[in-house]
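Q: Got a minute? One more chain.
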Amino acid sequence: MSSDLNRPALTDHYTTLEVARMLGMAVRSVQLMVDRGDLEAWKTPGGHRRISRDSVERWLASRQPGGRSEAVSGRARSTGAPRVLLIEDSTHFQNLISLIVKQQFPQVELSIADDGISGLAMVGQLQPQVLLIDILLPGIDGGTLITSLRSHERFRDSKLVVLTSLDEAQREPYRYALEGVPVIHKPNVVRELPTLLSSWVGAGGGESVASAMT
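A: Always. Here it is, folded:
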């Protein structure tokens, strides 16, 4: 008889820890979801947070096919292909990086989340080989997100790349999170990202984006 060890027994509510395990997130990330209204919660007389099961199911349903953070490739499933997750709120850079991956790494499954909380959930669901993360994201501090991912045992083998429009001086407040992490300044993404990806997911052999754009 099989059982889902990550899913608590059926009830009308979950604890914060139970939701964190279900979504593959840190407890702090679930607390942030409650704080911004993504999940409905209340506190017991003893001060313990309880999260509505209905709100968890609604949130999960919104991330299924047709949800706003669905994979751009339409194949956010494990097929043995390298998986790359982009957490980026700029439509321009979503499209640009999608073009890079499509043309130069056609073997890669690219998924996109447009905010940090959705991205955390997708990391847990997809367990990507490579994470591309904008450090400035709505709904969550980028440094906190990066630190959370780097400290999570489940994702210690994932490669992490930070994308940012901040110059070196502007990144100073995030130094604690960026230590040892490749950082690509967004104006250089076309030139630098393919080199990094090819070392981790293999060369794709497609037409270069620079050539396609000329």
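A: The longest strand covers residues 159-164.
Q: Perfect, thanks.
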